[in-house]
Amino acid sequence: MTSLQVGILYGFMVKRISRGYSTAEMSFLMGYSTDYIRQKEELKQIGFSFEDIHNFATALEERSWRGFSYSYEEHNKEADYLLVKTLSKVRIDLQLFRIAEDQSQTLVFHLLEENPGYVRYPTSEAEYFQEAQAVMKVLFEGRLFYSAKTALEIYQRCRTISGNNNLDPKHIQAAIASFTSLKEFPKLKKIRSKEYGCMYEKVFE
Predict the structure, then answer these.
(1) What is the pLDDT along the chain (205 residues), one digit of tens a residue?
(2) Which domains does the chain have, with CATH numbers?
(3) CB-CB neighbours of 133 under 10 Å
(4) Using an 8 Å Cβ cutoff, are 136 and 151 in contact?
(5) 83 strand-pairing partners
(6) Per DSSP, what are the bridge partners of residue 110?
(7) What are residue 192's DSSP bridge partners?
(8) DSSP state of 102
(9) What is 49-89 written as a DSSP string?
(10) Which helix (H) or strand (E) holds 185?
């Protein structure tokens, strides 16, 4: 990776973690059907396009954000990097090392985030999922889904209706899944848009 690619990666990770979103939640809000951001962070896919930066900023609802470069990496040459991810019950440690020609490692950054699989308050979490389901039912029975909507639009509408700042993308994602998996019509259908990624529309047959 180049120093610029490292800087953008760092900027993405800091923004995501500070918002409290998992990689799966970010990918969902950006319109991906897979955990695209996790693949990027784990260096399975290298680099971010201008479209990635735009979609990321839009999903964060910070359209003015354009990514930034981490000043520690001042050299312009490409280098090999290793991301070390250490999981515990409560948290995830993320460390990026630059690998020198002699195979020595230099720590570039070290970030911590809460493990998304850890549920601090199980009762409250169950209530949030139920609330998301109830709000989605109201939207589904209304006119919202007569035209296709992005995951971000649905998440924003659900937050507005509920007024609950504790509703996370994962709660809405689970609620959406329950309506796309209905055995009978009407139901939600996931459609793919070249411009917006995955979108959701109400279908009757």
Answers:
(1) 888 888 889 999 999 999 999 999 999 999 999 999 999 999 999 988 889 999 999 999 987 766 565 555 555 678 899 999 999 999 999 999 999 999 999 999 999 999 999 999 999 999 999 999 999 999 999 999 999 999 999 999 999 999 998 999 999 999 999 999 999 999 999 999 988 999 999 999 9
(2) 3-114 (1.10.260.40), 122-203 (1.10.10)
(3) 16
(4) no
(5) 96
(6) 95
(7) 198
(8) T
(9) -HHHHHHHHHHTT-TT------TT----S--EEEEEEEE-S
(10) none
The model's pTM: 0.92
Structure tokens at 68: 């930034």
Q: Alpha-carbon distance 89 to 94, whole Å? A: 15
Which candidate, 150, 144, 145, 128, places its Cα nearest to that of 187? 145
The DSSP letter of residue 146 is G
User: What letter represents residue 89's amino acid?
Assistant: K
Query: What token pair was written down for 32?
Result: 């991906």
